[in-house]
Design brief:
By secondary structure, the protein is α+β, with helices and mostly antiparallel strands. The protein contains six helices and eight strands. It has a domain of 125 residues: Aminopeptidase. α1 crosses α3. The structure holds coenzyme A.
C-alpha cells in the first residue's frame, strides 16, 4: 500500500515503518525505549493501578517482563505493526509512561494505547502525548482512522480521548475479561478529516510537576 507521508519513507514497501526516534511536545519528549529502561518500566507498570486499566499488562509485572516487552519494539516497528514510545518529561528526562499506535496498514487505521506512572498522573501528560501520536498517525503515516478503547470505569482515559478530539463510538458489553471479571468496553475514534478540521490539537497546557 502506497501511503503518502509527510515524513520521507515512513512506510517502506516491505511495510516496515521509519518513524522519528523522538517526538517533541511542550512538556515531553517521546523516544524509543532502551533496554536500560526495563527496571523503571517494571517499577511504574508494576503498580496494580496501571495493570488494572490496561488489558495486556499482567500483575505482578517483573523486570524480565519489561525486558521482553522492550525487546519486541524494534521488530514490531520494523514489521510495520506497532510504534511504541517512552513518555519522558522534557525538563528532567525522567521516564513517566508509554504510548503506542498499533497500525493496520491495509485499513490505514491504528489503535492507540497508553499508560502514565502513578506519580506523574494529572499533569496532562497522557493528553499531550496522545495528541502528538495523532499528529504522527495522521500527518506522518497518513492514517484514515485512529481509535482507542477503555474499560467502563476508566473515566480518566475517556477524558484524555475526548480532549484530543475523539468521539465516543459506543460500548461493547462485557467485551473484555480482566482478572476474571467481564467489563464493558468503550470505543473512541477520530477520522483524518475530523483531525484536520479540528482546533483541539493546539498544545495542551500542563501543570508544573515540581515535587514529583
Ligand atoms: C489514563 C491515564 C493514562 C491518564 O494519564 P494522565 O497523564 O494522568 O492524564 P491527564 O493528566 O492528561 O488527564 C488526567 C486528569 O488530569 C487533569 N489535568 C491534566 N492537566 C491538567 C492541568 N494542567 N491542570 C489541572 N488538571 C489537569 C485532566 O483534566 C484529567 O482530569 P479528569 O480525569 O477529570 O478528566 C492514567 O491514569 C493511567 O495510566 N491509568 C492507568 C492505565 C490506563 O488506564 N491506561 C489507559 C487504558 S485505556
Amino acid at each position: 500500500m502506497n501511503l503518502m507521508t509527510l515524513y520521507d519513507d515512513v512506510i517502506n514497501e516491505d511495510c516496515s515503518m521509519i518513524v522519528p526516534e523522538t517526538l517533541n511536545t511542550p512538556h515531553l519528549v517521546l523516544r524509543y525505549f532502551r533496554p536500560e529502561d526495563a527496571e523503571r518500566v517494571a517499577e511504574l507498570a508494576g503498580d496494580i493501578h496501571i495493570a488494572s486499566g490496561v488489558l495486556n499488562i499482567p500483575h505482578p509485572y517483573t523486570i524480565d517482563d519489561a525486558r521482553d516487552w522492550i525487546g519486541q519494539h524494534r521488530f514490531l516497528r520494523d514489521h510495520g505493526e506497532e510504534i511504541i514510545y517512552a513518555i519522558t518529561v522534557r525538563e528532567s528526562a525522567i521516564l513517566a509512561g508509554a504510548i503506542s499506535l498499533r497500525v493496520n496498514t491495509e485499513h490505514a487505521h491504528a489503535e492507540m494505547g497508553y499508560w502514565i506512572g502513578r506519580p506523574y498522573q494529572g499533569y496532562g501528560y497522557a493528553t499531550e502525548a496522545a495528541g502528538s501520536m495523532l499528529e504522527l498517525g495522521f500527518r506522518g503515516l497518513s492514517l484514515h482512522r485512529i481509535y482507542a478503547r477503555h474499560l467502563s470505569w476508566n473515566t480518566t482515559s475517556s477524558g484524555v480521548l475526548t480532549r484530543i478530539g475523539m468521539v465516543h463510538e459506543g460500548v461493547m458489553r462485557g467485551h473484555a475479561s480482566k482478572w476474571g471479571v467481564f467489563h464493558d468496553v468503550h470505543w473512541y475514534s477520530i477520522m483524518d478529516d475530523e483531525y484536520y478540521s479540528s482546533s483541539v490539537h493546539a498544545d495542551h497546557p500542563g501543570r508544573d510537576p515540581s515535587g514529583v
